[in-house]
Design goal:
Blueprint (H helix, E strand, L loop, with lengths): L2 H7 L17 H11 L3 H20 L3 H14 L1 E3 L5 E3 L7 H14 L4
Antiparallel strand pairs: 1-2
Helix pairs in contact: 2-3, 3-4, 4-5
Length: about 110
């Protein structure tokens, strides 16, 4: 999964650590990812901002636990393949599908906008 694909999916998930936007749970993970794909400081900051927004959206729907489960799965499965020019993946295809579906279901259940 490349950086652009990950950002598109970040609305469904997020990440960990320390970085240029301060210390929160997403900065370390975003740093790891940006190191992998040769992102710059602005890419890192955008990654953190997107992750924070996804977490805030999940919290607004009272789906924080489902978000955390997806975040943990993707964080645990994340891998950088530097030998292929910085290819980013979350492990075997479909590894976090259950957590992703649970978050989607939670948000859909909480929303009147279907």
């Amino acid at each position: 999964m490349n950086y652009v694909t990950w950002l598109a999916g970040i609305a469904a998930v997020a990440v960990l650590g320390t970085g240029s936007m301060g210390c929160n749970r997403f900065t370390g993970y975003c740093s790891y990812m940006m190191d992998c794909v040769n992102g710059n400081d602005m890419d890192h900051d955008a990654c953190v901002a997107e992750a924070e927004a996804a977490a805030d959206e999940a919290d607004a729907y009272d789906c924080g636990d489902d978000f955390d489960s997806l975040y943990t799965c993707q964080k645990d499965e994340a891998h950088c393949y530097r030998d292929t020019g910085g290819h980013w993946t979350y492990g075997p295809e479909g590894r976090c599908d259950h957590e992703d579906q649970a978050l989607s279901d939670c948000k859909a259940h909480a929303s009147r906008l279907h």
